[in-house]
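User: Predict NmrA family protein's structure from this.
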Amino acid sequence: MTTLITGGGSATGVALAKLLKAAGHDVLFASRSGQRIPEGFAHVKLDWSDPTTFEALFSTGRDIQYVYLLLAGVWDPLPQVEPFIDLAVEKGVKRIVLLSASGKETERGPASIGLGQVHTYLHDKGVDYVALRPTWFSENFLRGDVHNIKADSELQSIHPKGRVPFIAVQDIAEAAFDAITNVDALPSRETTLIGPELVTYDEVAAAFTKTLGRPITHRIISSEDQVKRYMYVVPEQYARVLVKIEEKIEEGVEEQHLTDKRSRVGKIGIREWIQTHKDAFV
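Assistant:
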């Protein structure tokens, strides 16, 4: 019984693979390049733009019963992933665990966009699936903010007062592990994943200040400047959608997750996360 993890050596994929391996489960990574795959794990080529690679995933001699579906950075994933889902079901995959996203935009239904369209398709097709819908990753500070914190001792955001329950990768991986091995432990087949601390960016800056032992300030930037920041890692269209979603933080949308019965609260708060990763920001 094998779990196929797409997206290569992503942070959540690697963390999930380690949990599965420790529990005695076979794991097979799939990605276009094969880079960043941790030692001791098998890999097979998967290119979402090349459907001919899909069949090979199920020709390795492994009994693939679970798929962890990661589609990060793909603006409109359903047209590419739909034939893969159909093939996976045909080949006997028992359950697909999709890493989706929180927010109204990705709620299942005809008005959903992006990743929301994928779990809408899974639902409408009658597939056994779980859609994990994390809020903003704690690990985003390692990508979008680490340079400014190290070089300029500042944290940038578009949020004067908005509060966010940042979720850590390890907590996402543990939820994915449960989705594969003990699905009844989840509150919903479309579980929102949040961290245990609801904090403003001022409070995040204060936590960095305390941990690093030097003042870290929080500077408010414009939405347009935030789009430019995101465009270093995603296309402009995707960046603008992200910023529109992010703007709603000031309206309290992230706080609403605390009363949503579909929410699962992780163990690692942002202050603990900063303490654990402090060397990256020195």
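Residues 2-134 form a domain with the Rossmann fold fold (CATH 3.40.50.720).
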